[in-house]
Specification:
Blueprint lengths: L2 E2 L1 H4 L3 H11 L4 H7 L3 H4 L1 E4 L2 E4 L7 H13 L2 H10 L25 H21 L13 E5 L6 H9 L9 E5 L4 H9 L6 E6 L6 H16 L11 E5 L2 H7 L6 E3 L16 H7 L1 H20 L6 H15 L4 E6 L7 H13 L9 E2 L6 E3 L11 H6 L6 E6 L7 H20 L3 H10 L4 H11 L7 E6 L4 H22 L10 H16 L8 H13 L5
Parallel strand pairs: 1-10, 4-5, 4-6, 6-7, 7-8, 9-11, 9-12, 12-13
Antiparallel strand pairs: 2-3, 3-13
Bound molecules: 6-O-phosphono-beta-D-fructofuranose (F6P).
């Protein structure tokens, strides 16, 4: 079978391999000693963000090779093609225009006009709910909003609503339900008053099992708890590109907010999928989030690649994935309110770049999308950081920190920031055997203890990290952070020559899920299924006879 190799794609491949052999064991600390200007040289500023990538296994010569690779991949042309609305999602023959959703200047394109109309309609909704003019079936005002959606129709708004907690207007509480596990909606409904609850059914396709099942449950719950059939319209809104399907479900046409096929689910929080955000923080803050992203779009489009934050983020990950053998990356926001960012970026990066054929359908013999994981600091320090410091894998880390907090406990913010910086420093410097031995000697340990313990105390160091620094977490800076990661993902897709905007890999599981559910309904388990699957399904049927 024909496969694509990086050596066929880029003339820089061999030189990058040579650079990797050299840099792999070159102490980053030494590079700081050799160049007193290293931090400044490897720090970029744009859209309110500062991106310090100096603590990486990178030197000027390697960076030049990576930038040359980006030129050979025609990254600049690819950015223009995306922004111009060319059908770069080639397997679905669609443009990719999430950037049009946050475009703030006057524009006459068809996309910008429909976006403006939708934003106006959203503003009307927010005003009505916040102003107490949107009333439930019994004439009561809305106190709780429940977003029912999954994947891109959940993770983005959920993450942003949490991240912008200090900006909540306090008019309504916003909740999220995603999982088909009935436990989630059941637990939530216990705490809600149906007469004062507004459900948002968020589904681009309006055919996603989880969302439809949860919406049906919500509908039943409303009817069983005093809402008449003709009062349901006051409690259900939909955001979807399938207006007909949403209407069939019973949602009033005027309560349906459009989406378009030129916005991918995981890139849609800027659209009507952002209604829960606007309801939580108000329309002005939602617009500020959009304008922060627009500022990053402008930077990505206009800045030369060597000064371009998303391009450099992508090139660094390309370097680690394809030349230094890494397969995962950790996202460690030292900001409690950013605790859902790693989960959001998991979908963004892994659904976008978890591909093994090129845009032309040819297999790749190189690594593409990596595993994204992480949690908010300092929690991770007391669990998985052990592996970051002393494990056998090389894991590049993105630290995200803020200079100022929204709360009054400044001394705690000092410790948070100090730990973040110290972690990035410790990963790089490590601690050698001699230092550990000297420390134990000073503590009065015996020679035999020192010999026995020394290997356990060695931290190899030379572990790379980026530091994304924000003055403060605000709608604008958050918008810029999200857009930076979106463009990083695109940069990687361009370098790997894959389509970052389709997601065919999620289909098989959905199809087989339906087959298993059918087997439970009919109690007819296909004899050609493997014995493990047959036994599991049989046990479920025997345990739940009422469900068949
Ligand atoms: O199954 C994956 C997926 O299609 C995601 O790409 C998408 O974000 C999610 O499901 C939800 O899809 P929808 O908005 O159509 O319900």
């Amino acid at each position: 079978m024909q496969t694509k190799k990086l050596a066929d794609l880029y003339t820089t491949h061999q030189s990058l391999q040579d650079a990797a052999a050299k840099l792999r064991h070159q102490p980053i600390q030494g590079m700081f000693k050799d160049d007193s200007n290293r931090a400044a040289r490897f720090t970029l500023n744009a859209a309110g963000l500062s991106f310090d990538y100096s603590k990486n296994l990178i030197d000027a010569a390697t960076l030049k090779l990576l930038l040359e690779t980006a030129e050979q991949a025609d990254l600049k042309g690819a950015i223009r093609r995306m922004m111009r609305g060319e059908a770069i999602n080639n397997t679905e023959d669609r443009p990719v225009l999430h950037t049009a959703l946050r475009h703030v200047e006057e524009s006459k394109t068809e996309q910008h006009q429909v976006v403006q109309e939708t934003l106006k309609k959203m503003a009307g909704l927010v005003e009505a709910v916040h102003g107490g003019k949107w009333l439930g079936h019994g004439g009561e005002t809305i106190t709780d909003v429940v977003n029912i959606g999954i994947g891109g129709s959940d993770l983005g708004p959920r993450m942003v609503v949490k991240a912008l907690t200090p900006f909540h207007s306090g008019h309504v509480k916003v909740h999220f339900v995603a999982n088909v596990d009935g436990a989630e909606i059941h637990d939530l409904c216990q705490a809600l008053n149906p007469a004062r609850t507004l459900f948002l059914v968020a589904s681009k396709s309006f055919s996603t099992l989880e969302t439809l099942e949860n919406s049906l449950t919500a509908r039943r719950w409303m009817l069983e708890n005093g809402c008449p059939e003709n009062g349901l319209a006051k409690h259900f809104i939909a955001m979807s590109s399938k207006v007909d399907k949403a209407m069939e479900f019973g949602i009033a046409e005027e309560n349906i907010y459009p989406l378009w096929d030129w916005v991918g689910g995981r890139y849609s929080l800027w659209s009507a999928i952002g209604i829960p955000i606007a309801l939580a923080v108000g329309m002005d803050n939602f617009n500020a989030l959009r304008s922060g992203a627009a500022a990053m779009d402008k930077h990505f489009t206009e800045a030369p690649l060597e000064r371009n934050i998303p391009a450099i983020m992508g090139l660094l990950m390309y370097w680690y994935s394809n030349y230094l053998g890494t397969s995962t990356q950790a996202i460690l926001p030292y900001a409690y309110h950013l605790q859902l960012l790693p989960a959001y970026l998991q979908q963004l990066e892994m659904e976008s770049n978890g591909k093994s054929v090129t845009r032309d359908g040819i297999g790749v013999d190189y690594q593409t999308g990596s595993i994204v994981w992480g949690t908010e600091g300092t929690n991770g320090q007391h669990s998985f950081h052990q592996l970051l410091h002393q494990g056998t894998s090389l894991i590049p880390v993105d630290f995200i920190a803020t200079l100022a907090a929204h709360h009054p406990y400044g001394h705690q913010h000092k410790f948070l920031f100090a730990n973040c910086v110290a972690q990035s420093q410790a990963l790089m410097t490590g601690r050698d055997r001699e230092t550990s031995e000297a420390e134990m000697r000073a503590q009065g340990k015996s020679d035999s203890d020192i010999v026995a313990l020394a290997p356990h105390k060695v931290h190899p160091g030379n572990r790379p990290s980026n530091m994304l620094l924000l003055d403060k977490l605000s709608p604008e800076t958050l918008g810029a952070v999200i857009a930076a990661y979106e463009h990083k993902v695109y940069t990687l897709g361009v370098l790997w020559q894959i389509n970052s905007f389709d997601q065919w890999g999620v289909e098989l599981g959905k199809i087989l899920g339906t087959h298993v559910a059918n087997a439970i309904d009919t109690t007819d388990i296909p004899g050609d299924w493997d014995s493990s699957t047959q036994t599991l399904v049989r046990r479920f049927i025997d345990n739940n006879p009422e469900l068949s």
